[in-house]
Design brief:
By secondary structure, the protein is α+β, with helices and mostly antiparallel strands. Helix content is 47%, strand content 7%. Helix 8 (237-252) runs antiparallel to helix 15 (365-375) and helix 18 (412-432) packs across helix 23. The chain starts with a helix and ends in a 20-residue tail after the last helix.
Length: 717
């Protein structure tokens, strides 16, 4: 597999969380399992240099030879057409969701519809109703309503075109020295990009997770392909798209085609100076590309380009703890080394191009439509939805608060807290009864469980960050001025955690609780059940316990299990990365994971389309999610056994319903190739077939498609 720089940066720097409902893990190393060339084992010192046994997938097979041989990928849109009866004993997910799938329609431009998209639509409609509704004595809400009105005023925005950007472009291009450039980068009123041309995040310090630190992830590169910097070489597709987009933007701003190309070439020429760093990392991406520096070391290292002073001016309290992590240091070092008056024209052009590429979605509709076409992405034809997406992009925390205050039934929060408490108690008992774990490791696992920060629905306390009031058009506000205020607010919100202890008082700044999702974050040992997921097919306060358990509780248990999957197993109760397993327990855990990997490597995710299996690489990708689905169901079944007259039929069917999906075939192929979750139908079928409670209830026996022999079962927990 080709190693790509940008797509790997987060996985090598931070773990950002795992979303049960489809968002996925944005950066994690499965440190307890995996092939030797892709994973590193930290479970036991004795296993550090031991390669995992490869899974033999060389024998040619057909779908009938694979696990789940009688299943279909029922998440493919239109897959039931012409198909006969399907027994729930053979394919539970397909049987339960068939009626919905045969009647659902995909709206124009959509690639899929699911339980997730249906609830997301509910959330969006609720938000739009408030944004277009009556004014209230709430300055933040007034700003949001004004912002929305400005964004949806396409007549004015189309008439203005790119004219509102011109003063900012002229300001940037008038700079004649790096001293002036530093002042530009330091001024949020001038620097539309928002940082000194680097991508940043705030993360817990690895060895002291109660403290947050600034992480410079990488320089904002036009391309991460070394071939793009060779003289006379044709541009790769990615760079060619950026070139065409930048040329389009520059011509709209009044530059000739020749001038636009000269600016892009000058920008690329400056970026070429980073090539040694790019090549070094591409040649050895398995090495550690980060460095953690004290503030004194950081200031001493970067003298030409005074990053520390710039970030202070932009509102980042880099002195609070005095630690900064720098990702891909060789490239960042190259930026500093070449930050000179001699290169000022290249720096200006490079800054301009990156800024314009970042602003394409914020201009008039022609720009939005044309640049989307160049990028091969679909435009959002619904003006209301477009405006909401821009607001969620620039002022997400304000949108979250609006949703909680005006859309969400706050009486749901204590209900979900009660269900979560029920799940944690059951999970504690489940860990205590694991007969393959030593008492020593059990005690540490239970201590970690007891210290999970339970963030339910929405935070009680939010960072004290205010957005400048956004006025109306008659008050002189424009869409661009509102966007600039919003982006400034976003950066201040991003910076706020640097001045606060990471003790659970505040939620992570980028946990957007008005969206649909649930997240476990190993680096601070927190589980986040977002307000947006407390509806639709996931939760309703009027439901019986069995339906709640098959819906939202399945998600809660899934997130709890992430604390003990192949990533979470390497973080302690505080979120520090450490080995807390005995050698023997670590090996036993790995053996159980290996059995799960073998099962999934032989499972065909789209059998009615292709006999191709997940294979070893695919199994590695989805292992954490598969482990978590299985662990959640085990926990829930232990609760079910304690209930009187428990309605297993309702419970099991709801597990399938939350995984209902209708996705176009090509989109499904991409999902299988890139997403770290199994296909949705298998997220129901695989966990269910591993437990006798399910098999016995529906009288499923050997020969039925949902049957799995006891010796073949793959539960890790």
């Amino acid at each position: 597999m080709k190693k790509r720089l940008i797509s790997s940066i987060l996985s090598l720097i931070i773990v950002a969380g795992t979303f049960f409902t489809g968002c996925g893990s944005t950066g994690t190393t499965n440190v307890t399992s995996g092939s030797a060339n892709e994973q590193q084992s930290t479970m036991t010192e004795s296993d550090e240099n031991k390669e995992s046994e490869p899974i033999d997938t060389s024998v040619e097979t057909t779908a009938a030879d694979h696990p789940g041989a009688k299943w279909i990928d029922s998440g493919i849109y239109g897959t039931y057409e012409g198909m006969g009866d399907i027994s729930l004993k053979d394919d539970f997910a397909a049987a339960i969701n068939r009626d919905w799938a045969e009647n659902v329609k995909l709206r124009e431009g959509a690639e899929n519809v699911s339980a997730r998209t249906e609830q997301t639509d509910n959330i969006n409609q609720a938000k739009l109703a408030v944004l277009t509704g009556e004014k209230k004595d709430d300055q933040d809400l007034t700003s949001l309503q004004n912002y929305y009105a400005l964004l949806t005023d396409w007549d004015t925005r189309n008439k203005e075109g790119l004219d509102p950007l011109k003063p900012y472009v002229e300001d940037l291009m008038s700079i004649s020295s790096v001293e002036e450039m530093t002042k530009y980068y330091s001024d949020p009123g001038r620097n539309l990009y928002g940082t000194p041309m680097v991508s940043v995040s705030i993360i817990p310090e690895p060895l002291d997770p109660f403290v947050n630190m600034l992480c410079i992830q990488n320089v904002s590169l036009l391309s991460d392909e070394p071939d793009d910097y060779q003289e006379g070489a044709p541009e790769t597709d990615g760079l060619a798209i950026k070139h065409k987009t930048a040329e389009y933007m520059l011509k709209r701003l009044g530059y000739s085609e020749s001038e636009a190309n000269d600016i892009f070439d000058t920008a690329k020429g400056f970026e070429r100076k980073f090539l040694p760093g790019i090549e070094a990392i591409m040649a050895d991406i398995s090495g550690d590309p980060t460095s953690t520096l004290t503030i004194a070391e950081f200031e001493e290292k970067y003298k030409k380009l005074p990053f520390a002073d710039i970030f202070r001016s932009l509102g980042y309290d880099v002195d609070f703890k005095g630690k900064i992590m720098v990702g891909y240091t060789k490239i960042v070092d190259s930026f500093d080394e070449n930050y000179s008056d001699e290169n000022i024209e290249g720096i200006k052009a490079w800054t301009l191009v990156n800024t314009l590429l970042d602003f394409t979605k914020y201009c008039d509709f022609e720009t939005y439509e044309e640049t989307a076409k160049l990028n091969g992405s679909k435009t959002i034809n619904d003006a209301d939805f477009y405006a909401l997406k821009v607001m969620e992009d620039t002022v997400p925390s304000m949108v979250d608060q609006m949703y909680v205050n005006y859309c969400f039934d706050k009486s749901i929060k204590p209900q979900v807290e009660e269900l979560t408490d029920m799940m944690v108690k059951a999970y504690r008992k489940m860990l205590m009864e694991e007969d393959w774990l030593s008492d020593e490791t059990k005690a540490i696992a239970i201590e970690k469980l007891d210290n999970i920060k339970l963030h339910i629905c929405y935070p009680e306390k939010v960072y004290d960050v205010k957005c400048d009031a956004i006025g109306t058009a008659t008050e002189g506000e424009t869409a661009l001025s509102a966007i600039i205020k919003g982006r400034r607010y976003f950066r201040l919100s991003e910076a706020a955690p640097l001045s606060c202890k990471n003790d659970g008082t505040y939620w992570r700044y980028d946990t957007y609780y008005s969206t649909l999702g649930a997240i476990y974050m190993p680096q601070d040992n927190s589980m986040n059940i977002l307000a947006g997921i407390c509806g639709g097919d996931y939760y309703d306060e009027s439901w019986p316990l069995e339906k709640k358990m098959g819906g939202l509780c399945m998600i809660v248990g899934h997130e709890l299990t992430h604390a003990f999957d192949t990533t979470g197993a390497n973080y302690d109760k505080d979120g520090a990365q450490t080995i807390w397993w005995t050698d023997e327990d670590g090996k036993a855990f790995q053996e159980r994971v290996d059995k799960l990997l073998k099962y999934y490597s032989e499972l065909a995710p789209m059998p009615q389309v292709s006999d191709a299996t997940y294979g070893e690489e695919g199994a590695q990708l989805i292992q954490g999610e598969a482990i978590s689905d299985l662990g959640s169901l085990k926990c829930l079944l232990s609760i079910a056994k304690e209930q009187e007259d428990f309605d297993y039929d309702t419970f099991f069917k709801q597990i399938a319903i939350i995984q209902k999906q209708a996705r176009y075939e090509e989109a499904e192929k991409e999902y299988v190739d890139t997403n770290d979750h199994p296909v949705e139908a298998y997220r129901a079928n695989v966990p269910l077939q591993n437990y006798d409670d399910f098999l016995n209830f529906y009288d499923i026996k050997e020969g039925d498609g949902m049957y799995l022999a006891p010796e073949d079962r793959i539960t890790v927990w």
